[in-house]
Design a protein that fits this description.
Layout: H1 4-56, H2 65-79, H3 98-110
């Protein structure tokens, strides 16, 4: 009843099948590992290009001492507190989208500013 030839043939088919499956899994794991490093490389490249672009941009010439004085006086008159202006960033331009404009207007409306009567 026990046929040794059939047993060894089945054992050989099992070993070949398992080795094919594990080699395919190892190949997929290697591909995923390579994709991880490729993604890190592309992200690093994008970050360096973006940082070079940001560093090369100069501050606009529109900011001067008179503008800072007018803005600080307007803020002090509105808030009734002394303020120090550390950074001025102009809104609008190329990078302004509808979502940004809507968010800014919602944020500005949320402040409770008491008007003098």
């Amino acid at each position: 009843m026990f046929n040794a030839d059939l047993f060894f043939e089945a054992l050989l088919i099992m070993v070949v099948g398992i080795s094919v499956v594990f080699s395919a899994l190892a190949l997929l794991a290697g591909m995923i590992w390579c994709f991880k490093f490729a993604d890190e490389y592309s992200n690093r490249k994008k970050i360096t290009n973006y940082s070079k672009k940001i560093e090369s941009e100069e501050a606009p010439d529109e900011v001067n001492d008179e503008l800072v004085a007018v803005l600080s006086a307007a803020i002090e008159a509105t808030l009734h507190k002394s303020v120090i202006i550390r950074k001025i960033q102009f809104l609008g331009g190329k990078s302004t989208t509808a979502w940004r404009s809507s968010g800014r207007s919602t944020h500005m409306r949320s402040h409770q500013i008491n008007l003098r009567k």
